[in-house]
Every structure is written in structure tokens, then in C-alpha cells.
Design goal:
Elements (H helix, E strand, L loop, with lengths): L1 H24 L2 H27 L7 H19 L18 H4 L1 H19 L4 H22 L5
Helix pairs in contact: 2-3, 3-5, 5-6
């Protein structure tokens, strides 16, 4: 029993020490870049069912709209804190424009508009409400991308 505890402790220490170089290899900027890209990819993924409804490729479904809009809001909320000073560049490629940091108030306002549009979208109960909400949400995303996102190569 004691030998098994020693073996377990030694294994845990070896795994911890073995993983330490991996944990230390990413910089805080790279961590922020990766996290915000993951959040924004989730926003894009949540937009897909909404776009399908808007293009009449899928029927209007209030539950799908609500779920997608809530996901967009949650991921935008998470992304708000993922643009700290010093994360403008890193080893990982980023599409964030420098204006995010030079116009932090404008960026925060644009994120707020997009989150408000997502919340409004979540409340769309029919196609008529959905159409207006989609226009507002899509417009807010487009405006933010034009001002604060570099085009992907």
C-alpha cells in the first residue's frame, strides 16, 4: 500500500514536471489570441443556423434562434476580456486590428451593440421579429469586423 502511494506520487510528479515545459511554452498573448479566436469561431458557428433561417434554407424555429443567439451573446461576453494590452501580436496569427487597443472605447461600444443585438435576437418569437433582429445582428457583426478585424489571408 505504501509502495503504491509512493509510485502514485512519483508518477504525478513526473507528469507534472513533464507537462511544465508545455504549459510554459505559450505566452499570455498567445493564450489570449487562441481564446478569443475560439470564442469568435463559436460566434460564427452559432450564426450558421440563423443564416440558414434567413436564407430560407431552414424553417424558422424560435428555439434554434434563442439557442444560437444566447451562444453568440455568451461568446461575445467572454471575448470582451480577451483583448488585453500586450496581446496585439503573438506567435499565433491574429486578425485583430491595432485599433482595438488604440480605440478601446469604440471597440467596447461595438461589442456592446453586438451583444444587445444578440439578446434582441434571442427574443424573436416569429419570422417578422427574426428578420429585423437578423439585420441588426448581422449589421453589428459587419460593422465591428470592418473597424476592428483584419481580413483573413
Amino acid at each position: 500500500m505504501i509502495e503504491s502511494k509512493r509510485l502514485s506520487a512519483a508518477l504525478a510528479l513526473a507528469l507534472t514536471l513533464g507537462a511544465a515545459p508545455l504549459a510554459l511554452s505559450a505566452s499570455p498573448a498567445d493564450d489570449a489570441i487562441a481564446a478569443r479566436q475560439k470564442a469568435m469561431e463559436a460566434v460564427g458557428g452559432a450564426m450558421k443556423p440563423l443564416a440558414a433561417i434567413a436564407k430560407k434554407q431552414a424553417p424558422f424555429d424560435a428555439a434554434v434562434v434563442r439557442k444560437s443567439a444566447e451562444s453568440i451573446d455568451a461568446n461575445l461576453k467572454a471575448a470582451e476580456s480577451l483583448f488585453p494590452a500586450g496581446s496585439e501580436k503573438g506567435a499565433a496569427e491574429t486578425w485583430a486590428r491595432p485599433t482595438i487597443w488604440s480605440d478601446a472605447a469604440g471597440f467596447a461600444a461595438a461589442m456592446k451593440v453586438s451583444r444587445e443585438a444578440a439578446v434582441a435576437m434571442a427574443g424573436a418569437k416569429d419570422e417578422a421579429a427574426f428578420g429585423g433582429a437578423m439585420k441588426a445582428l448581422g449589421g453589428s457583426c459587419k460593422g465591428c469586423h470592418e473597424a476592428y478585424r483584419l481580413p483573413k489571408r
